Amino acid sequence: MPPGVLTDLLVEACLHLCGKKGMDNDFPENPHLPKGTVLPRNQVAGHKHEGRSKLGLLQHEDGTILKASQKPPRGTREVDFYKQVFDATCTDKTILQLRSFLPRFFGVCHLEEYPDVTYLKLENIVYPFRKPCVVDIKMGKRTYDPEAGPAKIAKEVTKFPYVEKFGFQFTGMQTYDPVEQKTKFYDKFFCRKLGEDELLKKGLGAFFNLQQCLRRDAIQVLLEKLREIESWFASQTMFSFYASSLLLVYEGDMPYNNYLSPCIQCHSKEDSGCGSSGCGSTELDQNEDSSGCTCESDKTDDISSISIENSSSVISTSLNDIKTESSEDLHNDAIADVRMIDFTHVFSQGEIDENYLFGLRNLIRNLEMLLELPS
Ligand SMILES: O=P(O)(O)O[C@@H]1[C@@H](OP(=O)(O)O)[C@H](OP(=O)(O)O)[C@H](O)[C@H](OP(=O)(O)O)[C@H]1OP(=O)(O)O
Ligand SMILES: Nc1ncnc2c1ncn2[C@@H]1O[C@H](COP(=O)(O)OP(=O)(O)O)[C@@H](O)[C@H]1O
């Protein structure tokens, strides 16, 4: 197949998968961003795009996420990892299963404005959700890799003192309050300050709307998916993941009679045990900000401004996956999703990744504990 055809197919696939139709009318213009991109609406952590000197994540007008590859060796490690996992010639069961836990990978690309920068083109996990509640949870007791020097180790260790005990840490989140109809943002500074006894109620609890009406439905869906990931980790010895995250998303905007109604009842009862106000924390209120939603970009139909490297094996896999899916399916009744992201520190150590597994099991235990709280 000639490379040009492959490129068209890939773009077509991305548009199909990401429901470009639905995005055409609200794709805002911003002369400061690369053509055909906006700032992702729901990025809760990580490197944010601030221009040439600080590259981060962008959202392409076809809906996919473009992640700027960081400087080597971190960036190259992540690109190589995605290429390995999404290699269509791969028949390894461990890798095939892992693929389903990751955002789909559509190859790497370059933007006209930054031709020397490699971008990973990824499925946007948050896209199917109308009012996404999103949390980035960095996994592992130890978030520095085997090649880290003393300065990096010190930096990581002081960042979140309880990580050794919990095996996971929040790095940023946003929640949607269905009563106030507002999205609330919690930045990394808030997350790092969560004490040992606050993690369950102020961290996970705030995320799952414990104060008003615990989102048991979302927790149950996520638990199921997390147990699948756990069982993969329990047997695989191929990869060790340091400083990698789980991105948990659930729909904050549920149909009135399904979710909002009981929440409002609960909200108005002082003795309901659910609390009479929202998060009730000034700190949280201070974190409210609309910047995550201010997405501007050049409006353009010229998707040729993005050049996709020819990586046929990656593409054919994606196309196969897409065949069964229509863009309508993407804005369906998805309740929740979780994917593994951020692979800048993946190593092959030939052993069970106890570091990650410990955190994952503890996260699962904490979610189960949330479900056990009286409603
Ligand atoms: O790039 P920076 O300066 O924002 O630092 C990154 C950290 O941001 P911070 O400033 O601590 O909030 C960043 O921390 P968070 O993930 O935001 O907690 C990471 O530690 C990142 O290291 P790595 O990519 O995981 O190896 C850090 O990258 P390095 O300092 O290791 O390059
Ligand atoms: N595939 C994706 N879909 C949707 N959002 C994503 C995706 N990948 C990353 N993000 C958003 O970007 C943030 C940072 O991503 P990450 O890969 O950890 O970048 P970094 O290497 O800069 O830390 C995540 O917390 C999440 O909000």
TrEMBL record:
EC code(s) of this entry: 2.7.-.-
Superkingdom: Eukaryota
Gene3D superfamilies: Inositol polyphosphate kinase
GO terms of molecular function: ATP binding; inositol tetrakisphosphate kinase activity; inositol-1,4,5-trisphosphate 3-kinase activity
Top-level EC class: transferase
Keyword terms of this UniProt record: ATP-binding, Kinase, Nucleotide-binding, Transferase
Catalytic reaction equation(s): 1D-myo-inositol 1,3,4,6-tetrakisphosphate + ATP = 1D-myo-inositol 1,3,4,5,6-pentakisphosphate + ADP + H(+); 1D-myo-inositol 1,4,5-trisphosphate + 2 ATP = 1D-myo-inositol 1,3,4,5,6-pentakisphosphate + 2 ADP + 2 H(+)
GO annotation, biological process: inositol phosphate biosynthetic process
SUPFAM superfamilies per UniProt: SAICAR synthase-like
GO cellular component terms attached to this protein's record: cytoplasm; nucleus
The keyword Transferase belongs to this UniProt entry's keyword annotation: yes
Entry's family note: Belongs to the inositol phosphokinase (IPK) family.
Name by which UniProt lists this protein: Kinase
Organism: Potamilus streckersoni
